[in-house]
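User: My instructor asked us to take a sequence, write out its structure as tokens, and then describe one feature of it. I'm not sure where to start. Here is the sequence I was given:
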Amino acid sequence: MATYAIGDIQGCFDALISLLEKIAFDPDKDTLWFAGDLINRGDKSLETLRFIKGLGKSAISILGNHDLTLLSICEGNEKVKNHTLDGILEAPDREELILWLRHRPLLHHDEKLGYTMIHAGLPPQWDLTTAQKCACEVENVLQGDDYPQFMANMFGDEPKKWNKDLQGWARLRFITNCLTRMRYCKPGGKLDFKDKGPIGSQKDGYIPWYEIPDRKSNDLKIIFGHWSTLFGITSQSNVYAIDTGCLWGGTLTAMKLDSDKSKNSHEPVDSPEPTDSPEPTDSLEPVKKPELYTIECEKPV
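Assistant: Let's start with the prediction itself. The structure tokens for your sequence are:
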């Protein structure tokens, strides 16, 4: 038995299948964690969504911003013009797929394996308990009667900073933006959504969310996607960036989360070295490098 976390697929179905062949994935024994953004921009979003849904209990998939975009389009959002989601929108099993997607979590934590998976980031004020509670707030709305109203109020960049007294759509929007959109923020937690590039390209005063001193999630081993321009490298030995730009001609990455050495016939690639930056909290035990498996991807025409 083995467990792997896989980065953003975004409809690159052929790359996913090649990667699963490389790791000799067995759905009867193994488990896959998907870090969100299963769909959009690649040319096989429908095939990807159907396949992962069909894995049943062998797959744990969290929601990313592109997955939420599909939900909003299905609820009448006509502002999204550039997408490759028509296959899903016109599929005979569309409603079944959408219902399944609505019931995916925004955060997954496994106490036994010791990993927490999110799509984008966590504000510095959130520890694991707060993050789990906030994720559940949004999940409950996605699965409940207020879902259409939430879709109508989900998009937007405000508020930009956490306050435990936030209420209503503003609170749910902030939670959603953190878990599915954030990259850079100020040390006090003010978010910025315009800068999407590599470290050093951002505005003065903003840093990657995982580099904020004394953030309350410093004790967690966090897996996240969303940020392909990190190229799989972070400054923290317990924070793992696994969106390695499959859609843009990079690679699709699987990160092995357990220590079953008998599982793979292929050698893992070297894990990226952390960049020079603040060290994780001293309370953490030394973190062993994870095993990474990658597939080279072709850039869409």
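For the description part of your assignment, you could build on this observation: The chain is about 25% helix and 15% strand. Try explaining in your own words what that tells you about the chain.
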